[in-house]
Write a structure and sequence with these properties.
Elements: E1 2-6, E2 9-18, E3 21-30, H1 35-44, E4 52-56, E5 60-63, H2 65-80, E6 84-88, H3 94-101, E7 110-111, H4 114-122
Parallel strand pairs: 3-4, 3-5, 4-6, 6-7
Antiparallel strand pairs: 1-2, 2-3
Helix pairs in contact: 1-2
Amino acid sequence: MNPVSGSTGLVQVSTRVDGPVPICEVRGEIDASNVDHVLDRLIDSVPNDSPGLVLDLCRTVYLDSAGVRILFELARRLRTRGQELRIAVPPDGIVRRVLVLTALADVVPLHDDSESAATVLRARI
Protein backbone atom coordinates (compact mmCIF):
# COMPACT_ATOMS: atom_id res chain seq x y z
CA MET A 1 0.00 0.00 0.00
CA ASN A 2 1.12 3.50 -0.72
CA PRO A 3 0.08 5.82 2.10
CA VAL A 4 -1.09 9.31 1.33
CA SER A 5 -1.02 11.45 4.42
CA GLY A 6 -2.88 14.63 5.14
CA SER A 7 -2.95 17.06 8.01
CA THR A 8 -6.12 15.55 9.52
CA GLY A 9 -5.24 11.90 9.29
CA LEU A 10 -3.98 9.16 7.08
CA VAL A 11 -5.51 7.42 4.11
CA GLN A 12 -4.10 4.43 2.27
CA VAL A 13 -4.93 3.65 -1.33
CA SER A 14 -4.04 0.23 -2.72
CA THR A 15 -4.79 -1.17 -6.15
CA ARG A 16 -5.20 -4.74 -7.31
CA VAL A 17 -6.35 -6.00 -10.69
CA ASP A 18 -9.15 -8.51 -11.24
CA GLY A 19 -8.77 -9.42 -14.90
CA PRO A 20 -9.22 -6.17 -16.81
CA VAL A 21 -10.74 -4.37 -13.82
CA PRO A 22 -8.67 -2.34 -11.34
CA ILE A 23 -9.99 -2.36 -7.79
CA CYS A 24 -8.82 0.50 -5.58
CA GLU A 25 -9.29 0.10 -1.86
CA VAL A 26 -9.28 3.23 0.26
CA ARG A 27 -8.64 2.77 3.98
CA GLY A 28 -9.00 5.53 6.52
CA GLU A 29 -10.30 9.04 5.96
CA ILE A 30 -10.90 11.00 2.78
CA ASP A 31 -11.02 14.69 3.58
CA ALA A 32 -9.98 18.08 2.28
CA SER A 33 -6.38 17.50 3.36
CA ASN A 34 -5.81 14.54 1.03
CA VAL A 35 -8.46 14.52 -1.73
CA ASP A 36 -6.14 15.71 -4.50
CA HIS A 37 -3.68 12.90 -3.81
CA VAL A 38 -6.45 10.32 -3.58
CA LEU A 39 -8.03 11.46 -6.86
CA ASP A 40 -4.65 11.34 -8.62
CA ARG A 41 -4.02 7.79 -7.38
CA LEU A 42 -7.47 6.64 -8.48
CA ILE A 43 -7.25 8.17 -11.96
CA ASP A 44 -3.73 6.80 -12.46
CA SER A 45 -4.89 3.27 -11.60
CA VAL A 46 -7.32 2.97 -14.54
CA PRO A 47 -5.77 2.00 -17.88
CA ASN A 48 -7.48 3.32 -20.99
CA ASP A 49 -8.52 -0.17 -22.10
CA SER A 50 -10.25 -1.03 -18.81
CA PRO A 51 -14.07 -1.07 -18.66
CA GLY A 52 -13.89 1.02 -15.51
CA LEU A 53 -12.90 1.13 -11.86
CA VAL A 54 -14.18 -0.48 -8.71
CA LEU A 55 -13.66 1.82 -5.75
CA ASP A 56 -13.73 -0.19 -2.53
CA LEU A 57 -14.78 2.05 0.36
CA CYS A 58 -15.52 -0.82 2.76
CA ARG A 59 -12.66 0.29 5.02
CA THR A 60 -13.18 4.02 4.62
CA VAL A 61 -14.20 5.43 7.98
CA TYR A 62 -14.75 9.08 7.08
CA LEU A 63 -15.76 10.96 3.94
CA ASP A 64 -16.30 14.72 3.98
CA SER A 65 -17.78 16.99 1.33
CA ALA A 66 -14.41 17.34 -0.43
CA GLY A 67 -14.27 13.55 -0.66
CA VAL A 68 -17.76 13.40 -2.13
CA ARG A 69 -16.78 16.08 -4.64
CA ILE A 70 -13.84 14.03 -5.95
CA LEU A 71 -16.06 10.97 -6.32
CA PHE A 72 -18.40 12.97 -8.58
CA GLU A 73 -15.30 14.21 -10.44
CA LEU A 74 -13.89 10.69 -10.77
CA ALA A 75 -17.20 9.40 -12.18
CA ARG A 76 -17.30 12.29 -14.66
CA ARG A 77 -13.73 11.72 -15.85
CA LEU A 78 -14.27 8.01 -16.32
CA ARG A 79 -17.51 8.60 -18.26
CA THR A 80 -15.68 10.92 -20.68
CA ARG A 81 -13.26 8.03 -21.32
CA GLY A 82 -16.12 5.58 -21.91
CA GLN A 83 -15.50 3.90 -18.57
CA GLU A 84 -17.66 3.32 -15.53
CA LEU A 85 -17.20 3.80 -11.80
CA ARG A 86 -18.68 1.28 -9.38
CA ILE A 87 -18.41 1.72 -5.62
CA ALA A 88 -18.29 -1.07 -3.03
CA VAL A 89 -19.52 0.06 0.37
CA PRO A 90 -21.16 -1.82 3.26
CA PRO A 91 -24.96 -1.52 3.26
CA ASP A 92 -25.09 -0.45 6.91
CA GLY A 93 -22.09 1.90 6.94
CA ILE A 94 -21.95 5.64 7.49
CA VAL A 95 -20.11 6.15 4.20
CA ARG A 96 -23.04 4.61 2.28
CA ARG A 97 -25.40 7.00 4.05
CA VAL A 98 -23.24 9.92 2.95
CA LEU A 99 -23.24 8.67 -0.66
CA VAL A 100 -27.03 8.29 -0.63
CA LEU A 101 -27.71 11.64 1.07
CA THR A 102 -25.46 13.51 -1.38
CA ALA A 103 -27.14 11.79 -4.37
CA LEU A 104 -23.87 10.22 -5.53
CA ALA A 105 -25.73 6.92 -5.36
CA ASP A 106 -28.02 8.29 -8.10
CA VAL A 107 -25.00 8.72 -10.38
CA VAL A 108 -22.72 5.82 -9.40
CA PRO A 109 -23.97 2.29 -8.74
CA LEU A 110 -23.30 1.04 -5.20
CA HIS A 111 -22.47 -2.58 -4.40
CA ASP A 112 -22.10 -4.37 -1.08
CA ASP A 113 -18.67 -5.74 -2.02
CA SER A 114 -15.94 -5.27 -4.61
CA GLU A 115 -16.40 -8.69 -6.22
CA SER A 116 -19.99 -8.02 -7.30
CA ALA A 117 -18.94 -4.63 -8.68
CA ALA A 118 -16.02 -6.16 -10.60
CA THR A 119 -18.32 -8.85 -12.03
CA VAL A 120 -20.55 -6.17 -13.58
CA LEU A 121 -17.58 -4.37 -15.12
CA ARG A 122 -16.03 -7.57 -16.49
CA ALA A 123 -19.36 -8.28 -18.22
CA ARG A 124 -18.99 -5.05 -20.20
CA ILE A 125 -16.13 -6.53 -22.23
